[in-house]
Structure to design on (447 residues):
């Protein structure tokens, strides 16, 4: 039997802690950058909301204008991205995962995360929302915050013990925490999707940085949820079969979406793939035209991130016919595949909410509509990302009380399982594609 460890001497422990100025300086630097990352995401949120309102004003001015505006915006964004900041394309989560990979040497981290890419991500994603594309700001917030946190490395004293890996994990998770106003979801996202583990020697500081970034959002927007509060009736066995149907549909649709997106973003030798590779700007313009047509058919229901549409569903002020949900699915896929910077979290929540609403209408269980919508949001997001715990916690923060905790958890886990039968993990696969941008060098040594 191993001997028991003696209790520390309180006075000696305090003296050693206070005498280590390098440790305190490192903590101060990390927490200062975490606050800056949180405030940057807050500013990103405000700019995105302004862009969404701008597109609404454009469509209200002239109904035909999206047929010109959306192709022009998509083409311009893709041209700027490919010419000046190729690392800003897509959602941003695969770039952070690529930066965390052991295959990425420290000198090449700038390909995936940097202050330049963070600024470009903010401006180009907002431009996409101004262009009416079906994208979100939550995934890009991960890359934005990670780029800011990574820049703290230059100010850390030698021997601080805080690695680039720890800073990237803290930054990426801080982006989720600030974007959704949910620090707990940020911590879980760091463990489930980014790192799979947190370094023991700096785990407390990493968690503190994530929480601090989330508190920056709380200090500006208040202690409110992302979509407002969902009030649900008492859960009963009558919700079992409609709930299972929501899980199955979201799992199948989410797996299909993930597989389509991976296929679209992979090098292809078919006619469309060759055209996209040779003429990416023209391809983006064509995608913008298709998105404008879909938006016109749905009376604008597929424009933008879907934030307002989802709020309407939750409040019982809107409905989502099956065709609208399918067309939102297609719009989100086209928007992500055309090469613009932008995420899929918010559109995925909208699609899941639409599926839940349709199942409630199909089964005639209107009293449980809010519960099925919430389950659909968690299930579809989990199916697309294959990160069920993160998806469940994000949506749980939108529910008033704990009546749906087990239902949301079961929905997320079940849909994620179904998705795994259809598609490879989305972000891990896209991160592997990002790693192909690395120059061929000797195996790296990471600190």
């Amino acid at each position: 039997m191993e001997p028991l460890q003696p209790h520390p001497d309180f006075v000696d422990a305090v003296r050693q802690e206070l005498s280590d100025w390098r440790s305190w300086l490192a903590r101060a630097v990390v927490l200062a950058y975490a606050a800056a990352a949180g405030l940057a995401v807050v500013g990103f949120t405000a700019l995105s909301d302004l862009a969404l309102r701008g597109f609404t004003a454009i469509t209200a001015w002239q109904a035909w204008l999206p047929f010109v505006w959306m192709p022009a915006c998509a083409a311009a964004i893709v041209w700027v991205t490919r010419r000046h900041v190729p690392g800003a394309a897509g959602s941003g989560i695969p770039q952070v995962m690529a930066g965390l990979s052991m295959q990425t040497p420290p000198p090449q981290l700038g390909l995936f995360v940097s202050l330049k890419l963070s600024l470009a991500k903010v401006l180009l994603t907002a431009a996409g929302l101004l262009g009416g594309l079906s994208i979100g700001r939550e995934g890009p917030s991960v890359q934005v915050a990670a780029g800011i946190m990574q820049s703290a490395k230059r100010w850390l004293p030698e021997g601080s013990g805080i690695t680039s890996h720890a800073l990237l994990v803290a930054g990426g998770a801080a982006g989720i925490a600030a974007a959704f106003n949910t620090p707990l979801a940020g911590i879980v996202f760091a463990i489930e999707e980014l790192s799979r583990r947190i370094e023991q020697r700096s785990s407390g500081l990493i968690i503190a940085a994530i929480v601090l970034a989330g508190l920056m959002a709380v200090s500006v927007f208040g202690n409110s949820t992302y979509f407002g509060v969902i009030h649900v009736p008492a859960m009963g066995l009558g919700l079992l079969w409609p709930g299972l149907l929501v899980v199955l549909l979201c799992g199948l649709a989410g797996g299909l979406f993930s597989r389509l997106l991976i296929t679209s973003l992979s090098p292809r030798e078919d006619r469309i793939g060759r055209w996209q590779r040779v003429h990416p700007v023209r391809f983006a313009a064509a995608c913008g035209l298709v998105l404008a047509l879909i938006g016109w058919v749905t009376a604008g229901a597929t424009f933008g991130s879907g934030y307002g549409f989802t709020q309407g569903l939750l409040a019982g002020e809107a409905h989502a016919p099956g065709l609208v949900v399918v067309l939102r699915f297609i719009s989100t896929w086209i928007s992500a595949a055309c090469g613009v910077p932008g995420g899929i979290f918010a559109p995925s929540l909208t699609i899941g909410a639409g599926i839940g609403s349709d199942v409630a209408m199909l089964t005639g269980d209107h009293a449980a509509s809010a519960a099925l919508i919430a389950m659909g949001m968690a299930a579809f997001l989990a199916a697309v990302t294959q990160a069920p715990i993160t998806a469940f916690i994000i949506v749980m923060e939108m529910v008033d009380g704990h009546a749906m905790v087990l239902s949301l958890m079961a929905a997320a886990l079940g849909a994620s399982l179904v998705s795994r039968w259809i598609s490879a993990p989305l972000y891990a696969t896209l991160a592997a594609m990002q790693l192909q941008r690395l120059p061929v060098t000797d195996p790296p040594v990471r600190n």
